[in-house]
């Protein structure tokens, strides 16, 4: 979602803002803008639709100086992604400039009110009302004006505000959208996320809800909603910029896929001490955990799939009911929570997902204890939970989540062991057996990554098949045109076909959908495989529990869809084989994810393509199955020339509902 950067100091603000916005590109956006003020109170405002390059290209050979500025990448919610709707926004005059992340829900009413007072609006955004409100309330003190303005806003916001009358002040405020303050020497920053300022400072302050900050180059003061000063803790970031850089890889996604053995190894080293699982920030006593009778997992997207797998893991280890819900559903339904008995586990890479945060708050209000699984340290979900288990994946930049997913899975296995230890639901011998199997996983992952050539080959064959089919369509078009004697009719026909073919191309693989099937603990793997493919290739893909195939999806089967069957050795292996036989009987094309050495599944009557994983206890197999599925999606996306790290319309962290 939208990215915010702000700077005040002695350096060139434009350079710092562009650099910061570049580090926030991963969040997803469709337009960008900056506003810079210099000491002579001159304003430079530039906004562009499209990628950041359009903005930075305009700055080449142009000397833009200024010590104060705000910058923004916009992910459109209200109004299309054009220059007028891009941020920064201003009021009636260009004296007050504002960047915003979030949604101002009552913007309509506010606009009507402001119009009556003579305010004129030049964009379709919800944000613009905030600039007009600040302008309206300004009586010589920007902090106070922002404070009054945000008092009128309903919804969520992270704001950066500057004003031509006070060129030595940057004001920041937040409610339900992330915002941090970076502390430098003789300079200070604001940003939506740490990577935007990490090359400049490691000392940050996390703004909390309803807090507002007055920032000058030498001082940062934070206030509550009533403008009373409060003391905030400074936090030191101890990860470095390398983890937020591509380090020679073509894309962040493949870098993050390749990092998985290292991430899983790190989690195991950190969490297993003397054959015991340890967590440091649980803030829930053993007695409280022992009393838990049911668990509710809430999450979105990939984190939801990890949560679904977590259900299989925890049910097997704890033998208590585990429910999983997408956060956007959970927050609005009747939540059944027994005080002191129900444990809520929100799962989130970013820790900022709006629906997951809202679910957490709803459950907390009903007296539930919250133990979150988060990757980003200090994120809102982490801070608002009773306890947090950090998933230790390191910064994940690619929009498509990979290493954060397997880190969440591994954390569920460890949490299961930890709780089982308290509840005495697994024998000590089994715990040791599990631990020794888990320790082998990084090496097994490495082994899969070594065989990437095979995945590439399968992906390329598939891309080739698609291009071939497209070429056939065009051939058909040519033949039809030749048949027309009337050139006008021929042209009409050609245009129609060009449009159709173009939209087929735009939809990519319209004729070649993917179906992912899995059972039991690998049913969530099927969902995750399908999500990975669709988000980065725009190919239509569905994940299904294989047992559900006969209840609908089998109608899709002919030679065109590719059916990815997760058929590794397990208690449901025979069931998967019988699903595959049913697909093949209908001329289906099957790609099997199989256990190495399985000769049966290699046979033509079962698989057109096979991707192997090494032998592993089926209970832990989702950790390995994820890798070929991620790589398959990645290599198809590369073959189709897709924007792998920043797929269209998607944002890394979804901070609005
Ligand atoms: C994953 O590939 C997606 N981009 C997306 O589904 C993501 O997992 C979801 O938005 C949840 O994000 P979170 O883990 O940061 O809460």
Structure notes:
The protein is of the alpha/beta class. Helix content is 39%, strand content 21%. It is built from 21 helices and 27 strands. The strands form 5 sheets. Strands 3-2-4-1-10-9-11-15 form an 8-stranded antiparallel sheet, with helices on one face. A 7-stranded antiparallel sheet has the order 5-6-7-8-12-13-14. Strands 19-18-20-21-22 form a 5-stranded parallel sheet, with helices on both faces. The longest helix has 32 residues, at 452-483. The structure holds 2-deoxy-2-amino glucitol-6-phosphate. 2-deoxy-2-amino glucitol-6-phosphate is lined by residues 300-303, 348-350, 353, 356, 399-401, 535, 650, 653-654.
The share of residues in helices is 25-40%
Proper CATH architecture of the largest domain: 4-Layer Sandwich
User: Unreliable runs, pLDDT <50, ≥5 residues?
Assistant: 501-510
Question: How much is the average pLDDT?
Answer: 91
Number of helices: 21
Coarse structural class: alpha/beta
Please summarize the sheet with the most strands: 8 strands, antiparallel
Can you tell me the CATH superfamily of the largest domain? Aminohydrolase, N-terminal nucleophile (Ntn) domain
Give the distinct bound molecules. 2-deoxy-2-amino glucitol-6-phosphate
Based on DSSP secondary structure assignment, what is the total number of beta strands? 27
């Amino acid at each position: 979602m939208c990215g915010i950067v702000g700077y005040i100091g002695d350096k060139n603000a434009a350079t710092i803002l562009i650099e910061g916005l570049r580090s926030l590109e991963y969040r997803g956006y469709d337009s960008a803008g900056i506003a810079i003020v210099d000491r002579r109170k001159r304003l430079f405002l530039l906004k562009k639709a499209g990628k950041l390059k359009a903005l930075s290209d305009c700055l080449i050979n142009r000397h833009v100086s200024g010590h104060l500025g705000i910058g923004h990448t916009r992910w459109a919610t209200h109004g299309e992604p054009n220059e007028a709707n891009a941020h920064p926004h201003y009021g009636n005059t260009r004296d007050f400039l504002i960047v915003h992340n979030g949604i101002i829900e009552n913007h309509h009413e506010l606009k009507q009110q402001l119009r009556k007072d003579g305010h004129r609006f030049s964009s379709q955004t919800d944000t613009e009302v905030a600039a007009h409100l600040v302008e309206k309330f300004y009586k010589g003190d920007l902090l106070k004006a922002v404070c009054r303005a945000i008092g009128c806003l309903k919804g969520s916001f992270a704001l950066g505000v500057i004003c031509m009358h006070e060129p030595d002040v940057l004001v920041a405020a937040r409610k339900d959208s992330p915002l941090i303050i970076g502390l430098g020497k003789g300079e200070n920053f604001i940003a939506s996320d740490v990577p935007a300022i990490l090359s400049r400072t490691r000392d940050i302050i996390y703004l909390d809800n309803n807090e507002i900050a007055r920032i000058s180059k030498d001082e940062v003061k934070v206030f509550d909603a009533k403008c009373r000063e409060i003391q905030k803790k400074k936090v030191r970031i101890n990860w470095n910029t390398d983890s937020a850089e591509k380090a020679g890889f073509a894309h962040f996604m493949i870098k993050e896929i390749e990092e998985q053995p290292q991430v899983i190894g790190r989690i195991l080293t950190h969490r297993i001490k003397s054959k015991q699982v340890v967590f440091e920030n649980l803030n829930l006593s053993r007695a409280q955990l022992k009393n838990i009778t049911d668990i509710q997992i809430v999450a979105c997207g990939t984190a939801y799939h990890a949560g679904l797998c977590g259900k299989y893991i925890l049910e097997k280890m704890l033998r208590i009911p585990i429910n999983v819900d997408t956060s956007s559903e959970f927050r609005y339904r009747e939540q059944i929570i027994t005080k002191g008995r129900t444990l809520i586990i929100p799962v989130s890479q970013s820790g900022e997902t709006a629906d997951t945060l809202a679910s957490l708050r709803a459950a907390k209000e009903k007296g539930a204890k919250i133990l979150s699984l988060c990757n980003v340290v200090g994120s809102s979900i982490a801070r608002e939970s009773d306890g947090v288990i950090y998933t230790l994946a390191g910064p994940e930049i690619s929009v498509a989540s990979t290493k954060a997913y397997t880190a969440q899975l591994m954390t569920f296995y460890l949490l299961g062991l930890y709780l089982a230890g308290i509840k005495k639901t697994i024998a000590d011998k089994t715990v040791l057996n599990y631990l020794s199997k888990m320790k082998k996983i990084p090496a097994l992952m490495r082994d899969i990554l070594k065989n990437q050539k095979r995945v590439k080959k399968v992906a390329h064959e598939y891309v080739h098949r698609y291009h071939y089919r497209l070429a056939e369509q065009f051939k058909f078009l040519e033949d039809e045109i030749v048949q027309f004697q009337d050139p006008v009719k021929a042209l009409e026909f050609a245009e129609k076909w060009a449009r159709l073919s173009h939209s087929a191309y735009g939809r990519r693989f319209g004729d070649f959908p993917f179906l992912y099937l899995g059972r039991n603990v690998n049913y969530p793997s099927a969902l995750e495989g399908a999500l990975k493919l669709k988000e980065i290739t725009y190919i239509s893909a569905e994940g299904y529990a294989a047992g559900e195939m006969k209840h609908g999806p089998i109608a899709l089967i002919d030679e065109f869809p590719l059916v990815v069957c997760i058929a590794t050795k397990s208690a449901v292996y025979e069931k998967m084989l019988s699903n595959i036989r049913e697909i093949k009987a209908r001329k289906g094309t099957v790609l099997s994810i199989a256990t190495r050495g399985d000769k049966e599944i290699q046979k033509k009557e079962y698989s057109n393509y096979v991707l192997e994983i090494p032998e592993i206890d089926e209970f832990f197999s989702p950790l390995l199955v994820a890798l070929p599925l991620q790589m398959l999606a990645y290599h198809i996306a590369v073959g189709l020339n897709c924007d792998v790290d920043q797929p269209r319309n998607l944002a890394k962290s979804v901070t609005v509902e």
